[in-house]
Amino acid sequence: MANLTLDFRQADASYIAFPEFDKWIGLTIDTKKWDKYLHKVQTLASNSPESLEHAQRIVRRYAAIETGAIEKLYSVDRCFTYTVAFELAGMESLLAQKGADTINLIESQLNGYDYILDIVTSNDSITESWVRQLHHVLCKEQKNFSVLTPQGPQKRPLPLGEYKNQPNHVVRADGTVHSYCPVDMVGAEMHRCLQTVRSDSFKKIHPVIQSAFIHYAFVKIHPFSDGNGRVARTLASIFLYRDASVPLLIMSEDRNEYINVLESADQGSYQDFIDFILERTFSAIDLIEMSAKTGTKQSAEESLEKLGAFYITKGGYTHEEVDAAAKALMSSLKDYLDIEFNTMQGKDFLQQAAVTRQAATYQPISNNHRLLLNKKGEDINLSLISKTPAEANVMSSLEVHIPKDCGDLDDFIILNRVTEDQLSVRISEIIPSIKSSLEMKLGMFAETSANELAARLFEAAQAKYRS
Description:
By secondary structure, the protein is an alpha+beta fold.
């Protein structure tokens, strides 16, 4: 017991307070890329505020589900998160499989993300009492937390909305201790943190830096017995909501990278953490955009991949890697189209519901795009044929257009040649592997393409039947 007490005292003494905000003022944001993505949200807000609100709900649910998975309170996979976030058929069954505890945790986390919306819209200052209430709402369904005692780890009731009354330092796998704020300093450190957030200099800084700062400062303090990561991500969402209409969306698959950039920040590399927050915000905006375009809860997302090697593009990729990414993108898109068309094949009045992927020759969409290195393109042909007496035949062609000198700002384009609908995909969504957010966009694009083709078939069949 004496050694354990000594260890905690040493850990308290090893606490390094979060840095003063002037250390963050000189940090940078890719403003060109930020403006590009912010414009997407502003356009949606102007053209269809109802669609934007619906899309925000979906992404907010996605963030709420994943925030608990990051802490390993429960496990999720892409199917589970996608179905529950979009509230699709089968959601109740998937939730039931997880059990009541997981359902309750997710519900309280959803309530936490809803709770912050008032302070987002009112632009009120964040106070300590408000943060404590946020913890209460966000963690309401978590009954216990694990605490280290001389007898080993024990479960104790989680005090909701109350600062910790005993140390919560973390023992790493290698036996070293990661020190958080000592109990007797929590009040002072929280006061310093929120005083900074209320300062004029803080209000003048880019919202991504604001988001990164409050997240980092909060997790350095770790003021509550448990739930600090969830509260930090929700607090960080406030500043992104105010400027870009999206929450901070960190997925459980990003957990290792997330931990790494936080540890880099502990070493003074705050820029790595800011870059991480920025990229996660872009992913959230992508989901907002695609959800709003589909106008349905059952939409999903697009995809890309990697591989190659002849020479290196400006983004550091070989052209073979870029080609392989394009092929993987089309392969994944076809998988989603197969799902959509398989549901149609059982209709008695349909003669054919076909999806075929093949090499093709077509003109690149712009001078900045190309076909594959073999001078061939890749397209997916969609075909629906109805039987007599309303016999009709409709087709669509989906083409992939590849950036010539692929860099981080260059997009792959999937073009529906008939409707001219387009889907843009960043290379970072594909390499080193297809992101789940891209999978969602591909699913939504596939559904939109199938819906459009089915509508055209009905119109053509109706005209045939009446003629």
